[in-house]
Amino acid sequence: MTTAADSTTSLVQSVDWLAIAPPVIVATVALIILVADLFLPEERKPLLGLASIAGLVAGLALLIPLRGGNHSTFCLTTGTGTEACSYTADHFALIIQVLVLGGALLTALLSFGDTRRLPAGEFWFLLLSSAAGAALLPAARDLATLVVALEVASLPAFALVGIKRDDRRSSEAALKFFLSSVVATAVMLLGVSFVYATTGTLHLTELATRLHDVPDQLSTLAMAGVALTLVGFAFKTAAAPFHFWVPDTYVGAPLPVAAYLSVVGKAVGFSGLILVTVIAFPSYADVWGPALAVVAALTMTVGNVAALRQTATRARSAVRLLAWSSIAQAGYLLVPIASAAYSGDEQIGSTVAYALMYAVVNLGAFAVAALVARTKPDNRLSDYRGLYATRPLTALAMGFFLLCLAGLPPGIVGLFAKVTVFSAAVDAGLGWLAVVMAVNVVIALYYYLQWTAALFRAPEEAEPAAPASAAALADGPAVAVQTLRAPVAAPVSLTTAIALTAAVGIVLSGAPQLVLRFAAVNLF
Q: What's 210's DSSP letter?
């Protein structure tokens, strides 16, 4: 006979506070900043940025004790006597949390000292809140926690995109981002409800077992639930044909926010997609495998072809090109996930390795774009011409980032990541997808190399005017040939972000095998 005390004890779960510490500490700092903002005078607002950076550093530091990858909490005993946990800090979760919190930290460095035209307290609170949700998601092991984490990461991002209240373009970008995300969430929740109706559980490990034995009369409902859930995540990852919100959102958002969405937003979408496909829906691999392969081919092709069409003199063409480039990169990231349907989840390590490479170099490229935008707010591709003449180290760093994205030496880490993804497609028997990827890599070389070459060309100001007027010749050659202006000093935080990303990229290019080894060992 069970006593009242025994019944009460069975309802109380022990919580592994160390396992949940990284997202919790970031969320706690966000709340502290929200309250502190009410009392700090305007001249003390920079302290909020310092506190945000400290909170993100603390979150990263708390990942070190979890490197063993064997922490789980919020667990229930199932009918078969096994445990189903809602939060698991395994190797996969820790890698994505490093990516997410590291990306948020670099975004904070990009933003620090440049929030003078933005409400500082709201900005830092929203950034940390979104980062906390993004750090929670890769450790989620049931669909309810997964959806909640996804929305906690997404909702503050809407406000971050539209935080420039006096900018019509920012408001329009936030609206497009919001509407597309709401549709994605609605579709995903419909799919989750169908999956729950057919299985009676939300835990991912239990779903894998119960979907394998779905009754015939419910198989169509289960298949629809799987498909709709994946469609919702396709919106979040900006996979074609659900990518339409990306270019306008990146252009309208503040540059640090665009950098954050391009890396952390993608990490959230792809980690969720990996969790539901590999852990929850392996029995429906014959459904999501071919679908993701087609979506990957379509995404990389649409992204690269659209990037080719960007004109150098169009306002904000540099950010727009980075936006289309990020869509193409999403196509490459989808390839190993599709391959996992044919050859096992060991292929997922390729996606994680590629995501780590992409996060470092793309954040670096956005950091350089933020630096250029300080003197040339229109941020045209033509504004980067002759950057080497005024900022040689910045131009070298930008050239390195672009070559990494293209997969060319000296960006060895980019080449290594692309070869790894290509090998995953070949090993899975998806030869046609490997061919499509190879063609797209060649297409992307054109606009990456064109941008890289512009960095080292002679600046337009240094070219002699033709023909020179008689008055100009009379005044002497100093008038006929304009001199270069001295560059404006860059903030220390922005310079630090560029230096950090460049240093990490160089280290990884020197030992690219470390990325795959770190990303592929005991993911689940």
A: H
Mind listing the pLDDT tens digit for each residue in 420-470? 899 999 999 999 999 999 999 999 999 999 999 999 998 875 444 444 444
Beta bridge partners of 84: 76
Report the C-alpha dihedral over residues 212, 217, 218, 221, rounded to 10 degrees.
130
- Contacting residues for 189 by C-beta, under 8 A, at least 6 apart: 147, 232
Residue 223's SS3 state is helix
Q: What is the torsional sign of CA 214, 215, 218, 224? A: positive
If you ran DSSP here, which 8-state letter would residue 201 be given?
Answer: -
Quick one: which H or E segment has residue 188? helix 168-199
Residue 499 pLDDT > 60 = yes
Tens-digit pLDDT profile for residues 191-243 = 999 999 999 999 998 998 898 888 888 889 999 999 999 988 888 888 988 88
| Single-letter code of the amino acid located at 453 | A
Q: Smallest Cα–Cα separation from 120: which of 63, 212, 204, 51?
A: 51
8-15: long-range contacts, CB 8 A cutoff, minimum separation 24: 13/73, 13/74, 13/75, 14/73, 15/73, 15/74
Residues forming a β-bridge with 75: 85
Tokens 């008055």 correspond to: 471
Q: What is the pTM (predicted TM-score) of this model?
A: 0.90
The two tokens of residue 233 are 């995540």
How far apart are alpha carbons 404 and 20 in whole angstroms? 34
Q: Which residues contact 409 (CB under 8 A, 6 or more apart)?
A: 403, 415
pLDDT at 403: 94
> Residue 471 contacts by C-beta under 8 Å, 6 or more apart in sequence?
none
Q: Could you tell me if 400 and 410 are in contact, meaning their C-beta atoms sit under 8 angstroms apart?
A: yes
pLDDT in tens, 65-96: 988 777 888 888 766 556 788 899 888 999 99
Smallest CA-to-CA distance from 382 within 318, 324, 444, 305 is with 318
Is residue 253 within 8 Å of 160, Cβ to Cβ? yes
Whole-angstrom distance, CA of residue 345 vs CA of residue 352: 12
Longest dimension (CA), the chain: 108
pLDDT at 12: 55
- Rounded to the nearest 10 degrees, the angle between the axes of helix 91-111 and helix 17-36 is 20
Backbone angles phi, psi at 12, to 5 degrees: -95, 125
Amino acid at 517: R
Half-sphere exposure of 447 (CA within 13 A, CB side): 25
Determine the Cα–Cα distance for residues 118 and 467; give it in Å rounded to an integer: 46
